[in-house]
Amino acid sequence: MTERILLIFFVFFLSYRGTSQDFSAEIRADKLTIDGKARDGISTSFDFPAREVERGWWRYSREFGRPLNMRGYYKVTIPSEVNSGNVDITLLSKTLSSKTGCKFFLVLDQEHVPVTKVAAYNAQIKTILQDFKKTYYIDELGETLEKAEKKAASASKKVSKSDGNGKEKALAELTGYQKQIEAIKNQLKIIYQAY
After folding, report:
1. Closest by alpha carbon to 46, among 34, 38, 55?
2. Which residue in 67, 110, 133, 175 has its CB near the most CB atoms, within 10 A?
3. Are 108 and 119 in contact (CB under 8 A)?
């Protein structure tokens, strides 16, 4: 009887773990002080630790700019050749820990940007943040899906090799992994359709 209770708990635990990272498409206007100045930018929440999101931003921003860790915030310079303009653009970002993960703040450093271009650049920054968030969640869930599929394959082998009570346990384990895989795939569909 105790084994059945543990087995049921295990199945529910697997199902919960597969959907624990909830994706929220919300991006909101926000204000934050960076480098001694109050800045109007945008922010979004992640269900991941701040350090992991910072590393993800570093990898992501290296594809189009030069990130620099300013100890407390990141400064990403996008060369004028990349942004189809005649000035380099600088983005400032800061990741703040929260109880459920972190908040990621992104803003255009308007110091060397002509006033007439600010609105257009802010629209592009929102697109960058949306793409970063989507990419980050897809990568993370892709890794989780891969691990779950490997565990399901292993559980499937156990089912074919065992019999009796052992087979019942292996089937319950396999069912738990299948539910986890399905939940991850549903989450990925939601993320791909966002924005």
Report:
1. 55
2. 133
3. no
